[in-house]
Amino acid sequence: MRSFALKLVALWGWRRALLAAVLGAIASLSMAPFEISPVLLVCFPILVWLLDGARVQARSKFNGFTKGFWIGLCFGFGYFLAGLHWIGSAFLVDAETFAWMIPVVLAGLMLLLAAFWGLACGLAVTLWTGGAARIITLAALLAGAEWLRGHIFTGFPWNLLGYAVSGSEAWSQFASLVGVYGLSFAVVAVAASPALLAADGERRLVGVAGGWLWCAVFVFAAVLSWLAGNEILNAPAENEETALRVRVVQPNIAQEEKWDPVHRSRIFASYLELSDTPASPEFSGVNDVDILIWPESALPFFLEESPDALAAIAAILPAHVTLVTGGLRLQSNGDTEDVYNSVLVLDGQANVLERFDKFHLVPFGEYLPLEELLSGFGFRQLVTVPLGFKSGEGAATINVSNVPAFSPLICYEIIFPGAVSDPQERPQWLLNVTNDAWFGDSIGPHQHFENARFRAIEEGLPIIRAANTGISAVVDSRGRVLAELALGAKGTLDTILPAPAPPTFYAQWRDIPLAIAIGCSLLLTFFAQFVESRVEVSSRIRQGFGG
């Protein structure tokens, strides 16, 4: 391993860049649906050794930053391109209009996301020290970069490094303490620790005993968190479910058909039929449920502007049933009309009780970033409505009779850690309605679902998920999937609404522990730099006297 590490330290130029990009692509296999997290134990040690090489070859602090930036950028570009290439599928729904945008949008998005990792690695090289301190430095800076890409430019926290543990329910429970951003810190620290068995910066090699000792510390921490996660999973809950019966409808309507007027009546009829389809002795139809849920933008028309459709819904709904559906909403404002992507709550007479408007719109999907500039080059948003979609005010808790208070989240609003509920009024469950038909049978919907599942763990709240083409599911407050409808299936999902858990540590403190951990890690880094500088000075003095 020592000779191998030294060869990597000596790499430079395009060979180093290519290797970093390939490693990033391999690292993406740790995400859903593959969840091969052990690949990180190979990719991150090699990344550390490449950064060791950048530090060795640096002629100045700035030069070291530049070299580290390019290594991180290439690593991140490979990771995001391999893990998020499916985004291009949305531009193929209307290929004649949008297909030309795929290489531009994908390349631009991947470079933007990778730039956060580039900054982290560049800063890491300028702070690079020997031993385990450099592992902690890299983990802290990459976790900070993940937090930044989840917040800057509206944020896009998709496939955060913390999701690498999604294949383990026990390790996933750590998110209830520090959230997925904190998990990202832990994942990098543990995954990069094998680098301690070989090259250690430009000054020396770690002794075998020292390297194994530090690796043992990281492994012990990982095992301890796994044991703690199992304790959380096995702890008895006072109430694991409510008495409320829920039916989720998954119609599996192709995106190419959804907005075609020819299919409008058939789509509406499909929703009505599935809503009242017998599924079991306990759920013989809509009369046996309390809450009926349809997915995002379920109907291809403005429901509130369609009296006939409301009358048809009222005809099948018993008085005790509440319908919660995604739908487009039209709001008149004098001479203009605004369009919202919304959740509507209807009673048994199809009266609209509550409305919630999506507040986190999808770039290029529901609005065009830098519209004045990009529209001049022919760019357009995928969902075309007059004047574009308007944004809602933010997360909200919906309270209606006969339904426990819930927080509705439309599409990818569920992927934002710490931003899925009203901080002033905690709901009892989370509702995620989405339309992943844009991405077909790709890995995207699987990643979307795993991202959503972590919100249940972080918040201690169950999630009901209604997706047009799947994956619709019921997730309990510890992130366990109780029931699901597979991607591409058509049918209904009948369940009992799980009960919430008490507020988790993360729900109460959010990312404050992460900020403290990053701050302490950087203090450790500065201390390690101070110690190394003193050692170097002492060594030179001794050499001078010896001469």
Structural key phrases:
547 residues, alpha/beta, Nitrilase/N-carbamoyl-D-aminoacid amidohydrolase, six-stranded mixed β-sheet, 17 helices, 45% helix, globular
Q: What fraction strand?
A: 15-25%
Shape: globular
User: What is the radius of gyration computed over CA atoms, rounded to a whole number of angstroms?
Assistant: 26 Å
Biggest sheet descriptor: 6 strands, mixed
Quickly count the helices.
Answer: 17
The total tally of domains equals 2
Widest beta sheet: strand line-up: 7-6-5-4-3-14
Helix content: 40-55%
Distance between the termini: 36 Å
Description:
45% of the residues lie in helices and 16% in strands. It is an alpha/beta fold and 547 residues long. It folds into two domains: 2-235 and 511-546, no CATH class; 241-507, 4-Layer Sandwich (Nitrilase/N-carbamoyl-D-aminoacid amidohydrolase), CATH 3.60.110.10. The strands form three sheets. A six-stranded mixed sheet has the order 7-6-5-4-3-14, with helices on one face. The chain has a six-stranded mixed sheet with strand order 8-9-10-11-12-13, covered by helices on one side. A two-stranded antiparallel ribbon has the order 1-2. The two termini are 36 Å apart.
Summarize the structure.
Helix content is 45%, strand content 16%.
Any chance you could write out the topology, listing elements then pairs?
Layout: H1 2-9, H2 13-27, H3 40-57, H4 61-84, H5 95-98, H6 102-126, H7 132-149, H8 169-172, H9 175-192, E1 199-200, E2 204-205, H10 208-234, E3 241-250, H11 255-258, H12 264-275, E4 291-294, H13 307-316, E5 322-333, E6 336-346, E7 352-357, H14 371-374, E8 398-400, E9 403-410, E10 429-434, H15 444-459, E11 463-467, E12 472-475, E13 481-485, E14 491-498, H16 505-509, H17 512-546
Parallel strand pairs: 3-4, 4-5, 9-10, 10-11
Antiparallel strand pairs: 1-2, 3-14, 5-6, 6-7, 8-9, 11-12, 12-13
